[in-house]
Structure formats: C-alpha cells, structure tokens
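Collaborator request, handled under Task 6.
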Amino acid sequence: MLHLERQSFIRDKEKWEKKGFQLYSFNDRQIAEETSNHPTWLHVGGGNIFRAFIAPLQQQLIETGEESTGIIVTTTHNMAVIDSVYRPYDNVSVAVTMHQDGRFDKKIIGNIVESLACTRSRQADWERMQAIFTAPSLQIVSFTITEKGYKLIDYNGNYFPDVAHDLANGPESTESGMGNLAALTYARYKHGEYPMAFLSLDNCSHNGDVIKKVIHTFADEWVKHALVEEDFLTYIDEKISYPYSMIDKIVPSYSDKVQKYLQECEFEDTQIISAGNSKYTAFVNAEEAQYLVIEDDFPNGRPALEKVGVIFTDRETVNKVERMKVGTCLNPLHTTLAVYGCLLGYTLIADEMKDAELKGLIERIGYDEGLKVVVNPGVIDPKAFITELLDKRLPNPNVPDTPQRIATDTSQKVGIRFGETIKAYGDKAKTLEYIPLAIAGWCRYLLGVDDRGNTFKLSPDPLLKELQAFLQSVVLGDISSAKGTLKPILSNTDIFGSDLYEVGLGEKIETYFEELIAGPHAVRDTLRKYVTK
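Structure tokens returned to the collaborator:
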C-alpha cells in the first residue's frame, strides 16, 4: 500500500511511478529551508481549489527552476483543516485531473511546505505567522476563503462580536480571523513598511477591493481611536496592492469514482476526513480546464506564473473577463442548469447536458442572448469559452458536480448572472426570451416541488424564507393562485439590480411562471414549447 508521506516518495519511488503517480523532482529539504528563511508566498484558506489549482502552478515553476520557494498555507477559521488534512500527511496531497474521456491523471503536490493556524491561541503558530509577515521577502498573501470569509457584519448590520472586539482594542489582542490578518499587516508596517500584495482569488466581483475594504475597516478604526499611527493608513494604501483576479476551475467535492480508482492503485489514504463542519480527503479531484487572470500589480515582485498559463493584464481587462464569465459565458448557464436540474430530478450536471431541452436552453442564453452584449476582453475569446464549456466541461461525466450545489445562494447571484446582461440590453431588454425563462425557472424552483409534484429540499439561501413567503399561496395546477405573487420578487432591485417590470420583463416572467406551474410535467412541457420551437 502507498501512504502519503514525503519519505515514501523517496523510499518507494518505483511503486508510486508504477501505479501512475507523477512525483515531484525537487529536493524537499532544500525547498523547505529556503521557504523558511525567505518566505515569498503565504496562502490563506487551504481548501480544494487551492490544492487542485493554485499550489500546482507554483510547483511547476519549482520543477523548472523558475522558483526556489514553496507556499505556506494558513487558515483563519477552521483550524481542524491544518490538524487533520495537512499535517498528518506532511502537507502533501494528490491532485487528480478528471478528463472527459474517462482518464484520471494523478500528481503528488509537495510544494506546500508548511501549514499554520492563524490564531493567537496557538503561540508557536502565531509567532511563525509574525515572522512570515515581517519578512522582507514576502511578496504575496493570497486568499481562497469564499465571499463569506471576508464578511465582518452579520445580516442585521452588526459587527460580529470578535470583530467588534478587535476594532475597539487594536492590533495587540485581536481575536477574529480578519482582525488577526490586519494585526499581522500592522506588524509588517512596524518592521520596515515592506511592500506586498493581498491577492484575493475568490469568485467575487472586484475581489481586490473586497480584501482592501476589510484591512481598511480595521486600520480606520484603529487610527480613529489612536491605537495605531496614522501613517499605517498611508502604508496600506501606497505599499500594499490589492490586485483583481478572475479564477475559473470546477473543483467539486471528492468523487466516489476517483476514490475507488485510487484504492485500486493501492493508495491508502482515501478515507473521508471530518474537519470542523467540512469534509475533506487527502486527494482532490478537478476538471482539466482552468483559467486565472490577474491584474499585474505586485510591488514586491511575484512568481513568473505567466509561464504556467496565468494571464497577467490590467485591471480593466480583469473586469471584462469577470463580467464575461460571471454575467454571460458560464455562471448564468450554471444557474439555469441548477434550478431546472433540481426541478427535473437530476443529481449530476453532466447528465443534464444529455437533456436536449436543457442544453438547448443554455445554448440560447449563452450564444443567442449573452454574446450579443458581452464585451470581448481580448485575452479570452467569449464564444470559444462558451463552446468549451458546453462541449467539454459541463458534459464531463467524471466531474461529480450537482445542480443542488450550484443552486446554493442563488438569490445572491442572479443580480450578476442575469441582471448585468439585462442592463446591457437597455430598452431592448423586453426582447429577451430565454433569460426570463431561466428566472421564471428559479421562481418555480422556490416552491420546493419538482415537476412530478413531489417536494424536494431546497439548497441553502439567506433569502429563502422571505422569498418562499411571497409564494406560499401558489398551488401546482392552479394558475390563478400565482396572480401577483412574483411582484415583490421581480421588482426587488437588491436581487436583480433593476426592477424587472420597469425593463419590460416582469409580465413575461409571470407568464412563463404560470405555464411552469400548470400541473405535473408542466416544466418539461414549457421547455419543449420554447426551446424546441
């Protein structure tokens, strides 16, 4: 059996290679020592997209001699990830690429040389974090913590208690995850005002501004209450950069198929690991396609990631790429598949791509409606992006992605995924046919009743109770019960970015919705009527 530890790659090299594992070739001790003495890259958030996408990029540069340091990973919240996922396996993982033709490539990712908990409660880890942050060599602190990870305020508009504590007490006794990072930034300022970049790699609009706002929130309050020097504000504005980025790679939770395959390869560490409220494995599986576009703004230098496929450009181009992906060429299509997939009983996105009506619907949203208004960013061709998505990425049977996962938090997404295209159409928005059908499908989804008339569990969404309350009088099979129920939803500018009645789409969506609730199998009948016409 093959066990995930660094000594095994040396001792049992032939066994690993015979089973098809691609091993790294660099010297562990040398890379670890250089990273310890001259850290250049700290990553916050050690989840699957980091292990499957980000870490392998740097590993490629080390393998070719372009870089001599690895990545240090830390977490600000779920410390169990460090204790259960990283340290027991020498910070090593297996990255499995799931090809559409059924092949699995498996690579050992070994350039993560250190894992730390970012909390004062672990003194040794905290002292090491301070040493890293105050090192002149540090170039990048990157993030994959999801949009929720940056939040300082609850849904009632109040600071979380640990954040409120940190804002009031300054950088010497911080308790919150983001407060700790702000305190470490202050330590860097005090030790020499060294430059660096805070690089958010999370899928949120203008992600550089998101992390900048977080750091500023703490700095502003601390300066206001004379807890730090006023020059700290100048430092975080002038010597720290906050590049924008757009990242795209489907990295679902572990695949049973991949797990079984690895077991057949005599790989021992395939068990499910409980880390806090999350589930992990020592392996991570992902699709082959990947895109990373980053604003080239790194005041203390950066790795030559352009040599491994990363696109560096200016801020406006990153914005265009993000709008292309999130508002036109991927996310709207994903959300459409999600809500209709749940209604039609699908549990795998790849299976939906065999459904003529569903595939036809997203083709029309992408090609017929989205491409007419998308701005070509120049570095990625929008039409080619959609074609790859439809022909290769979404139909990949090895990717265990589900409509139920994609449907999570849809109320927080529709304003960007559909609303921006609607805005781009201006006074011609009323000519749209398929985006309104997707929105009507989401409203139909909110009933929690599938196309056969059976109830199903809706995915988590912060507005779920509020939205369902508007629809509580709707009865499947009774079109008259829908009268007026969509008004508070479709007119909500906080959800869609505009009042859909004012742009001429409200009544059209209502009509679609009435057809979708006409009775059992009405969803399928409606799709056939409009998509195959």
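The cover message to the collaborator said: "The mean pLDDT is 95. The longest strand covers residues 93-98. Please let us know whether this matches your experimental observations."
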